[in-house]
Amino acid sequence: MARMHTRRRGSSGSDKPATDENPEWSDVDAEDIESRVVELAEQGHDPSVIGLKLRDEGVKGVPVPDVKLATGKKLTEILEEHDAEPEFPEDLYNLMRQAVRLREHMAENGQDHQNKRALQNTESKIRRLANYYRGDEIDEEFTYTHEYAAELLDDE
Fold first, then answer.
1. I need a labelling partner for 22 at 20 to 30 A (CA). Which of 43, 61, 127, 141 fits?
2. Distances (CA, A) of 122 to 31, 52, 125, 133, 150
3. Model confidence over 71-98: pLDDT tens digits?
4. Residue pLDDT, tens place only, 101-144
5. Predicted local distance difference test score (pLDDT) of residue 3
């Protein structure tokens, strides 16, 4: 993945195995998987954490390596069907959380120019991502402000 705000090259990551069917050893019923996904979401877990828990802990002791192959639906689609999806997409929410932490740091350490730049870059990413999601995943009227992000994070 190429870094947006640096001259460095991106780092290559691993790819998922190219397969179009669920492995034989993971024969969990799709309804059981969906109910477990909703249960984990109600406990406050993010979609990425839910995927890790299904992979590691499984459903009724049987691991689920790929929710989409096992159920035919993406994890976020399952959450949408059951009205359990988070208010903001996970990537946007995590960037807002990072920006709030950086602002708090900058309030105490005004001379930290590196982190000032990091805050500028993070808020730039938030605005770019908000434009991408606006009208589809988030409200058409959404505009990022530090105050709104801080308030949102205080609620949780």
1. 43
2. 39, 26, 5, 16, 15
3. 999 999 999 999 988 889 999 999 999 9
4. 999 999 999 999 999 999 999 999 999 999 999 988 899 999 99
5. 60
The three-point CA angle 59-65-51 to 5° equals: 70
Please report where in the chains the tokens 């035919």 appear, as a residue: 72
Written as one letter, the residue type at 61 is: G
What's the CA gap between 125 and 88, in Å, rounded?
A: 15
From 67, 63, 44, select the one nearest 55 (Cα to Cα): 63
Q: Read out DSSP for the chain?
A: ---SSSSSPPPP-------SS--TT----HHHHHHHHHHHHHTT--HHHHHHHHHHT-BTTB--S-HHHHHSS-HHHHHHHTT---SS-HHHHHHHHHHHHHHHHHHH-TT-HHHHHHHHHHHHHHHHHHHHHBTTTB-TT----HHHHHHHHHH-
Under a CB-based contact definition with an 8 Å cutoff, are residues 63 and 56 in contact? yes
Of 65, 69, 66, 79, nearest in space to 21 by CA: 69
